[in-house]
Amino acid sequence: MQNAEVAISDNFKKMATRAILSIVFFIVVYILLIGFAIGLTIACGYFGLGIVAAHPSFITIVLGIGVASIGVLVLIFLIKFLFSTHKIDRSHLVEIKSSDEPELFSFIQKIVDEVDTDFPKKIYLSSDVNASVFYDSSFWSMFFPIKKNLQIGVGLVNTISVPEFKAILAHEFGHFSQRSMKVGSYVYNVNQVIYNMLYDNESYGSLIQRWANVDGIIALFVMLAVKIVEMIQWILKKVYELVNISYMSLSREMEFHADEVAANVAGSSPLITSLMRLDLANHSLNSTLNFYGGKIEEAVKTQNIFAQQKFVMDFYAKENEVKIENNFPIVSFENLNRYNKSKLVIEDQWASHPSTKDRVTALKKLNIIVDNGQPQPAGTLFKNFESLQQKMTDFLFAKVEYKTEVTLKTKEEFIQEFTSQHEDGSFPEIYNNYYDHWNTSSFDFEEAKKTSIYGLNIDDFFGEKMINQVYAQQALENDIQTLTQITNKTFPIKTFDYDGKKHKQKDAANLISSLTSDLEDSKKSMHENDLKIFNFFYSKAKTKGLENQLQKKYKAYFDTEKRYAQWIQPFERLSEHTQFIQEVLPYEVIREKADGLALLENELKLNIKEMLEDEKYKKYMSESTLNNFNLYLSKDWLYIQPTGYNEDALNILFQSMNDYQVLLNRSYFDSKKDFLVFQEKLNS
User: Fold this and answer.
1) DSSP-assigned letter for residue 505
2) Which residues contact 476 (CB under 8 A, 6 or more apart)?
3) Average pLDDT of each block of 10 consecutive residues along the chain (684 residues)?
4) Which of 11, 128, 274, 460 is most buried by its number of CB atoms within 10 A?
């Protein structure tokens, strides 16, 4: 295939034009701001010299320097991006060369030739479920060509076939295969420039702080410079919104174009099947990593985490009735949308990628068929894929610090324990996932015993009709939340679709009222179903003399649910309040927010103390959790110091918050499962 065969769409041309116009607008605004900054620098410098010349003294010299620094600091803010470089973190990557993997390099060379682009400068391996082309960038990247590097995730290779791998790589190279794609790089770099001036200000903030510390008088002029910079940032935020939305629109079109390039190289089908499987593959790797994350205290790891990822992927596929072809799950939209009952459709203008559904629809429309032969696992392209998997596993676990000698868990041992953990973390199959997304709320037992269950059986309570209602109700709650954001204009959109009809932003309020009524009706119906469920099992319990035990199980669950609702609140309030730690803020603001932490911590600490005395929670506590709780309660921690954040204290706080949430969730789940398992046994 020659890349010239892939025509640029009219929509791409339209978005490219918008993007170019947004760049021109930014350049005009920037020139005006630079002109202002230069003028301000000259004026401040002239005025500063005048002060010194009029009355030479130490005070006037300091005043003169302070006045002159206003313009200089503003100008530095506007040109600092010229010296900024965006370097990609390579600490998680392992470079490979053609001598290591000759067949892989030959495979990539053929794709590069077909796409008509340059061979990567370097090729790296990661453990991720991902493949990407990357490069270190700066403002000067727009003017000087830079060779790109290729990153290949072993977690990806492990879960795809050779044709799918070919399609994915062709997609990545497709982004750089035509000159017309260059406009995307320009818009991206302009985005980076504005982002640098708006948000990448750590070094600039340090400069400001150091200069302000020189003298109290200079600090006053620094504050004035900061106020001017804040006004410039306000202007740039408005420009950034325009440039960014243009870039996102263009980026989505670039994805469609790269998909078409890939389809011409490998066919539509391989790219479709790989796109549909990516979330499952990624979830499987994360589940495996989380399993071993919970084994750090026991100093347990594995020799090959990717073999276990493959097992988990197939396990989840079977659980969700996903068919297997050529040893890989073929995920369909029916699988993905089984639980998605939302009727709200919003075009996300801030998304850099089209939705998977839109990409698959476009690829199916292209319907390009390429004979790739019998699909083999992508790992067969490597000299010794199992050995490579082990090497990458060692590289991954090398970053973990173990306190004792490490032991290896075999694949068979992992399968047994993972399956057991999955069963422990799941409700009995009899409920058909009904309780996975629905929590029975407290009710009066005597009222429940009066409900009619004549002629009803298990399928009436947990069949497809009720399962669909559970997910429809969940969709209603999510849709109401989103529509509320639209009404409050925190979600900046003009139109949206609901149930196939187009609506304007002003219609959201009326829809909320209607959906809220539907939600209340649904909750009432679900509540009635819960009453019938109780009475159904209560009737069975009576025949076995276990009715009192059933009520006790329910009551214990209701008590746990009530406590959970109360105890999760201090965690949520603290989580929201501590968001300031992720922001770049003046020291005074940080100090004020840090002081406010103490009041929010009181309730959390009281609850943790109670947890430490309650056997219901103590049985879940590991030694490290117990030690961290005691350390956290041992004193009132100071989270900021004159030199910055107290990282040790913050780590103790966040670890305590995390452990607190885990214990609450675990206790709640076990209490819920306890009465559900008891019910299940009554039915046998």
Assistant:
1) G
2) 515, 518, 519, 522
3) 61 82 86 93 91 87 89 88 73 93 96 90 94 73 72 96 96 75 68 72 81 84 89 86 80 88 94 95 96 92 96 94 92 81 72 82 93 91 96 94 92 95 93 92 94 93 92 92 88 81 88 94 95 96 95 96 95 91 73 82 94 91 92 92 84 95 95 95 88
4) 274
- What is d(CA 340, CA 334) in angstroms, rounded to the nearest whole number? 10
- 415-423 long-range contacts, Cβ below 8 Å, gap at least 24? 415/308, 415/311, 417/291, 418/288, 418/291, 418/308, 418/311, 418/312, 418/315, 419/315, 421/291, 422/315
The token pair that represents 278 in the structure block: 């990516």
Is the alpha carbon torsion for 50, 51, 54, 59 positive or negative? negative
- Per DSSP, which regions of 121-201 are E strands? 123-126, 131-134, 137-138, 149-153
pLDDT at 1 (0 to 100): 45
CA atoms of 223 and 215, how far apart (whole Å): 12
C-alpha gyration radius of the chain = 30
User: How many Å apart are CA 223 and CA 419, to the nearest integer?
Assistant: 60
Buried b / exposed e along 340-377 (16+ C-beta atoms within 10 A): ebbebeeeeeeeeebebeebbebbeeeebebebeebeb
Domain limits, the chain: 3-84+191-244, 268-336+384-424, 425-543, 548-684
Q: What are phi and psi of 407, to 5 degrees?
A: -115, 150
CB 233 within 8 A of CB 200: no
Gap between the Cα atoms of 512 and 480, Å rounded: 6
- The CA distance from 113 to 105, in Å, is 12
What is the CA angle 252-254-258, rounded to 5? Answer: 120
Exposure string for 497-524, b = 16+ CB within 10 A, e = fewer:
ebeeeebebebbeebbeebeeebeebee
CB contact at 8 A, 479 and 515: yes
The predicted structure's pLDDT at residue 450: 94
Of 191, 263, 171, 180, nearest to 12 (Cα)?
180
Eight-state DSSP code of residue 135: -
Q: How many CA atoms lie within 13 A of 239 on its CB side?
A: 26
What is the CA angle 654-591-566, rounded to 5? 45
Q: Please provide residue 548's backbone torsions phi and psi, each rounded to the nearest 5 degrees.
A: -70, -35
Encoded amino acid at 336, one letter: L
Angle CA 288–162–391, to nearest 5: 45
- Two tokens, residue 27: 């350049």
Of 560, 564, 574, nearest to 632 by C-alpha is 574
CA distance 198 to 77: 10
Residue with tokens 């977690």: 155
Give the Cα separation of 646 and 658 in Å (integer).
Answer: 18
| Closest to 151 (Cα-Cα) out of 198, 90, 193, 209 | 90
Report long-range pairs for 623-632 (Cβ below 8 Å, ≥24 apart). 623/297, 624/297, 625/659, 625/663, 628/652, 628/655, 628/656, 628/659, 629/656, 629/659, 632/605, 632/608, 632/656
What pLDDT score does 142 carry?
59
Extract the tokens encoding 265. Answer: 């190289």
Mapped onto helix, strand or coil, the DSSP state of residue 294 is coil
Q: How many residues does the chain have?
A: 684
Query: Two tokens at 461?
Result: 């309570």
